[in-house]
């Protein structure tokens, strides 16, 4: 393992390739500035907590007597309490500032040490930018946001392990640091077997001896607390929260959340923990011997948290370090693992997965599943793989000249002909829609402003003769079968049709999929701007106009909540109408791409029926549909400006050959048509 550490850049990147430049230096400074700004923001959040409340996690903060665990809030080991309690007594007035400052400095140190541990050869850009990028990501990660709480020592053990592996030359000194880390977080003693199996046996022995000595010292100094932690609470299980709480992201916690309990649960937990430890350590040893020492360390840390009886969220920083591994033979597949890890470690699980009961076991254990995937399942490439340095390249279409000379095409918006990675697409679509929902819900909801804008829209429609909503609404209410049809159409096709079109294009026409997906996304972003700038009451929420809400039922306009629907979404996010906008997008895509006339006809009918539905059900004004048409047109126009026309002229034979070679790697069907190549 020592040789692997030297080979993998533990003492400098001997294999850095490429040249440096002023732009990389400027980017590095900007990224460090971003990391600093995020650190200041995190410090401000912690310092906003009253000191008395912040120090409550230690229990009896001003004096040495008393049990660490009387309050049930302290989750550290007795050794951690032995070290921390005097600090609380001596530095209570300034401890809050000192604690958050040291925590954030430790995070920056982890970024620096981990960046130096990347396996050779390291491109110049990666070598310069890895540390600030990793530090910035850690600053916004869930573990670091929670580690700033009192008594949480999760960041320091990670730093101690990294220093032991990459910066300390001697074996026993490295083992001493890992033993201290294990004394603070016992499951990290799993690094001792990793050291032993990779040839660093003196370090492994020193780690075990240091852990035993620190634990014995805490037993001698604090026997009651040691009994409480090790025996009564089984290595801290149940301290700081219920064992089945969402904060316990370990295999034990997941089994308890599934409803298992008693001896059967303990036996199953022991079997699963042993299996995870065996598989994870075996993989870590293999990658350490392969020269990917940082990945080996990350996998071992993931195993340690997963098999611990209480693996807290703030201890899962190891998952973020696992982005050091490369996954996938194609260049297009390389971002999938890093993106999945970053999203998992920075966003709440409710953003990643919809709030469905069937998905609760996955949603409640997202961080644990990420750790288990990294430790036991993700097929990281070995450095001996021919795809390690040269993955299968992505096929790009022939660049198109800009139609408008004053608006040049963006050089980074290149035409990808191959099919995008499905997992990455699903992740981005889900996260994008969740962010859209949150932004829409957070848009201004002033009732007076929304009703005033509604009166303004109605006045404009009356002036130009478009105020047909009331007549259409009551005509439909008087025709029960028509009312039922429009209610069904309004509630059923809004998401189904766009998702179906995207799925078909993804499978059959990947080039057109990218063009269609980009235009839909840009149109939706523009619509969000409209929701913020122009909150609008739909006809059904306008008092005194006599509209009938056929979909949601009678609304009590005297009650500001208007009923249950207000708790679900922002009822004033009506201009522009994305119900009509998305249906118009569907119609345009189908008419442009469908090969048969009857398919084009159905595509054209969809937005026509939708506009009738949104007006008939009193959910939108006619001008809302006009707004939806404007943002969809702007979405298609922006894609055209950014990447040129959708259809390209016929490509050269050499380019067609390259495109065909890309398809041989599973990138999708032939993208050529008699008129040329489909472009994104």
Please provide a written account of the structure.
Residues 456-637 form the Inositolphosphotransferase Aur1/Ipt1 domain. It is found in: Cell membrane. It is a multi-pass membrane protein. It comes from Streptomyces subrutilus. Belongs to the glycosyltransferase 87 family. The chain is mainly alpha-helical and 680 residues long. It folds into two domains: 27-61 and 71-377, no CATH class; 443-555 and 567-646. It is 62% helix and 1% strand. The chain is built from 30 helices and two strands. It has helices at 2-7, 22-47, 51-55, 78-91, 95-116, 124-140, 142-147, 155-166, 171-184, 191-197, 201-221, 223-232, 251-257, 262-289, 293-307, 317-321, 336-346, 349-352, 360-363, 366-377, 422-442, 447-464, 469-477, 480-508, 510-533, 565-568, 578-593, 597-616, 622-643, 653-664, and strands at 672-673, 676-677. The protein has a two-stranded antiparallel sheet. A hairpin with a 2-residue loop joins β1 (672-673) and β2. α9 packs parallel to α11 and α24 packs across α28. The longest helix is centred in the last third of the chain and has 29 residues, at 480-508. It is elongated, with a radius of gyration of 29 Å. Residues 2-12, 59-64, 563-567 and 649-680 have low confidence and may be disordered.
């Amino acid at each position: 393992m020592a040789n692997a550490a030297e080979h993998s850049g533990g003492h400098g990147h001997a294999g850095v390739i490429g040249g440096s430049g002023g732009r990389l230096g400027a980017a590095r400074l900007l990224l460090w500035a971003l990391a600093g700004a995020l650190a200041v923001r995190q410090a401000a959040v912690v310092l906003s907590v009253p000191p008395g409340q912040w120090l409550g996690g230690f229990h009896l903060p001003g004096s040495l007597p008393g049990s660490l665990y009387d309050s049930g809030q302290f989750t550290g080991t007795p050794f951690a309490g032995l070290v921390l309690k005097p600090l609380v007594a001596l530095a209570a007035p300034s401890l809050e500032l000192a604690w958050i400052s040291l925590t954030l400095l430790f995070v920056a140190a982890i970024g620096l040490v981990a960046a130096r541990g990347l396996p050779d050869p390291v491109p110049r850009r990666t070598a310069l930018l890895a540390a600030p990028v990793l530090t910035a990501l850690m600053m916004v990660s869930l573990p670091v946001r929670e580690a700033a709480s009192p008594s949480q020592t999760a960041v320091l053990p990670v730093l101690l392990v990294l220093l032991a592996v990459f910066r300390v030359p001697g074996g026993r000194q490295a083992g001493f640091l890992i033993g201290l880390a294990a004394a603070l977080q016992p499951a990290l003693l799993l690094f001792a077997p990793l050291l032993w199996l990779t040839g660093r046996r003196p370090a492994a022995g020193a780690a075990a001896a240091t852990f035993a000595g620190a634990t014995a010292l805490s037993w001698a100094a604090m026997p009651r607390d040691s009994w409480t932690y090790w025996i009564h609470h089984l290595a801290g299980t149940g301290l700081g929260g219920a064992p089945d709480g969402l904060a316990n992201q370990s295999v034990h916690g997941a089994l308890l959340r599934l409803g298992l309990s008693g001896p059967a649960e303990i036996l199953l937990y022991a079997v699963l923990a042993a299996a995870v430890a065996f598989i994870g350590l075996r993989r870590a040893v293999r990658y350490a011997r392969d020269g990917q020492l940082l990945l080996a360390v990350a996998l071992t840390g993931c195993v340690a948290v997963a098999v611990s009886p209480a693996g807290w969220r703030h201890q899962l920083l190891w998952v973020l370090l696992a982005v050091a591994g490369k996954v996938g033979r194609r260049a297009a597949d390389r971002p999938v693992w890093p993106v999945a890890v970053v999203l998992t470690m920075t966003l709440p699980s409710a953003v990643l997965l919809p709030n469905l009961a069937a998905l609760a076991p996955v949603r409640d254990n997202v961080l644990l599943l990420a750790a288990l995937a990294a430790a036991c399942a993700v097929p990281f490439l070995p450095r001996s793989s021919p795809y390690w340095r040269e993955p299968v390249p992505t096929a790009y279409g022939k660049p198109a000249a800009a139609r408008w000379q004053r608006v040049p095409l963006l050089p980074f918006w290149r035409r990808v002909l191959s099919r995008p990675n499905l997992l990455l697409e699903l992740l981005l679509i889900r996260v994008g829609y969740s962010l859209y929902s949150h932004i829409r819900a957070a848009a201004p909801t002033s009732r007076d402003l929304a009703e005033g804008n509604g009166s303004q829209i109605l006045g404009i429609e009356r002036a130009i003769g478009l105020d047909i909503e009331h007549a259409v609404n009551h005509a439909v209410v008087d025709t029960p079968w028509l009312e039922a049809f429009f209610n069904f159409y309004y509630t059923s096709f809004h998401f189904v049709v766009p998702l179906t079109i995207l799925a078909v294009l993804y499978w059959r026409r990947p080039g057109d999929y990218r063009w269609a997906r980009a235009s839909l996304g840009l149109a939706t972003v523009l619509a969000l701007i409209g929701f913020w700038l122009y909150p609008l009451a739909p006809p059904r929420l306008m008092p005194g106009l006599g509209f009938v809400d056929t979909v949601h039922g009678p609304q009590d306009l005297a009650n500001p909540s208007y009923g249950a629907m207000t708790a679900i979404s922002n009822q004033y996010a009506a201009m522009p109408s994305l119900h009509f906008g998305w249906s118009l997008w569907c119609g345009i895509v189908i008419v442009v791409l469908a090969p048969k006339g009857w398919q084009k006809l159905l595509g054209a009918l969809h937005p026509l029926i939708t506009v009738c539905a949104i007006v008939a059900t009193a959910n939108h004004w006619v001008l809302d549909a006009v707004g939806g048409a404007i943002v969809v047109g702007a979405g298609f126009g922006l894609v055209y400006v950014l990447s040129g026309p959708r259809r390209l002229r016929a490509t050269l034979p050499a380019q067609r050959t390259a495109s065909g070679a890309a398809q041989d790697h599973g990138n999708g069907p032939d993208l050529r048509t008699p008129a040329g190549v489909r472009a994104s």
